[in-house]
Amino acid sequence: MKPSLLVADDEIEVGEIIRAVAEDLGFDVTCVAEGSEVIGLVDRINPDVIALDLRMPGADGVEIIRELGKKQCKSGILLMSGMDQRTLSSVQSLGKENNLDIGSTLTKPMSLDAIEMALNPYLSKTETSSPPVNSLTKQIQFEFGLAVLYEPEIQIKALQAESTQRLRVRAQWHMDDDCVIDARSLTTLAKDCGISKGLSKMVLAQALENVRVWSNQDFTPEITVRLDNSFLTDLYTPDVLAMMADQYYVPREWLVLEIDEKSILEAKDSAGDVLSRLRIKGFKIIVAAEGGAENLLPLIDNLPIDQIVIDFAHLNTDSNFLNDMELEFLYSSLTSIVNKKGIGACATNVNSSEALEFARKCNFNSARGIQILPPAKPDEILSLYQGGKLSARGKTH
User: Fold this and answer.
1) Which of 147, 214, 167 has its CA nearest to residue 390?
2) What are the start and end residues of each CATH 3.20.20.450 domain in the chain?
3) Which of 41, 80, 279, 347 could form a disulfide with 364 if both were Cys (CB 3.0 to 4.6 A apart)?
4) Please, are residues 80 and 68 in contact by the beta-carbon 8 Å criterion?
5) In whole numbers, what is the pLDDT of the chain averaged over residues?
6) CATH superfamily of 4-137
7) What distance in Å separates the CA atoms of residue 199 and residue 204, rounded to the nearest whole number?
8) How far apart are the C-alpha atoms of 175 and 337, rounded to whole Å?
9) 396: which DSSP letter?
10) pLDDT digits over 120-175, tens only?
C-alpha cells in the first residue's frame, strides 16, 4: 500500500512540484491551498505525512499545529516556510510540545533534492515490506526529474574592457521512461499546467546552489535565468529574487534575468516598476527580442536593459543568409544602436560556423549555441573552464 502525503500550501505551483517529486517516490498525494481545510482533510484521509506551510489563508501553521496536537495526530509533519529558520525552529518546538511527530523543516526556496531527502524517511517507514534498493537503482532514480544544464556565452566584441564568463541556464525534465522534455517543451508544458512560476523558482534555486558550489572552487560566472512572464506582473518579484540570491550567498550582480520582449509589451503598466527595482537591487537584465527588435527599440531609453538577445534559429533554414545584405544591414544597425546606448547584443542559437561568422559580420558582442558548446552539466562546465578548454573563439580545444 502506498504511503499518503497531504501537501498544505497556498502556492499552488509549489504544491504541484512537491506532488511530482512525491509521486515519483511512491506517495499518494493530496494538495490543499486553504489552511482552514487542513484539519478536515487530516480527519478524512489520515495521511502518513503532512507537508505544512506556515503562512496560509484561513488558518496559519501555528493554529493548525495546535489543533493537530489536540487531536493527537500521528502523521509525520514537515514544516515549510519562506520565513527565517528561527521561526521554523520555534514552530518545530511547539509541535514537539504538542506530542506531534515533527520531522525536517524545508526553507523556501527548496530544491528537489531537499524535498526528496525530507520525504524519504517516511517512505522507508511505510514500505517496510519493500525489497532494499541497490545503489544502481538509487543512481537511476536520482537522475529522474528536473535537470539544470548550462550554455556558455562567448565574447565576440566585448562591449566593455572586461569580459565576463556567462552561462545561460537551460532546464530539462527527465522522465522515468528515458524521455527528456527539452527547455522549450518544458516551458510550454509548465504554462499549460499552471506551474510556470513555481518551476522558474525551482530552476533558479538549483542554479544558485550550483553557483554557490562553483564559487568555492574559484569559478564565479554570471548565470542567465529566463523569468516566466508572470514575474513582470508581480510587484514583489524583486524582493523574492533578492531573498533567493541572498539565501544562497550568491552576489546579485552574478544573476542575469532574461525576459521576453512580448511579456514587456504586454505588461507595460508594471514592467517599468519591476525592472527598475530589479536593477536597483543589483540584478542585470536582458531581453530576448523577436525578429529585429523593432517593437522594443522605442522603449529602450525608458527601460534598464543590459543586453538584447536575437534568435538565429531561423538561419538554419536559410542556406544563403551569409549573402543576405538586407538582413546583415538590419542586424548591424541594431547592434550599432544598442551599443551606443551601452547595451550589449547577443546572438543565440548560433548552431553553425556560418552563423558564428554572420554574428561577427553584424558586430554582435557575444554568442551562444551549439557551435560554441551544447548545454552541459555543472561538473562538465566546471571542468571546461578550469582546464581552459573553452576558447573565446567558440570552439573547444
Assistant:
1) 167
2) 145-386
3) 347
4) no
5) 83
6) Response regulator (3.40.50.2300)
7) 9
8) 44
9) B
10) 888 766 554 344 433 333 333 334 467 889 999 998 988 775 567 899 999 887 76
- The packing angle between helices 38-45 and 61-70, to 10°, is 40
Q: Within the chain, which residue ranges are assigned CATH 3.40.50.2300?
A: 4-137
pLDDT bracket for residue 82 (50, 70, 90): confident
Cell digits of residue 300: 529602450
What topology is assigned to 145-386 in CATH?
TIM Barrel (3.20.20)
- Each residue's pLDDT tens digit, 358-372: 999 999 999 999 988
CA distance 65 to 88: 12
The pTM for the full model equals: 0.63
Residues 202-255: tens digit of each pLDDT: 889 889 999 998 988 889 999 999 988 888 888 888 998 998 899 889 999 999
Count CB neighbours of 317 within 10 A. 7
Long-range pairs for 29-37 at CB < 8 Å and ≥24 separation? 29/4, 29/5, 30/4, 30/5, 30/6, 31/6, 31/7, 32/6, 32/7, 32/8, 33/8, 33/9, 33/57, 34/10, 34/58, 35/8, 35/10, 35/59, 35/60, 35/61, 35/63, 35/64
Structural contact between residues 216 and 243, judged by C-beta atoms closer than 8 angstroms: no
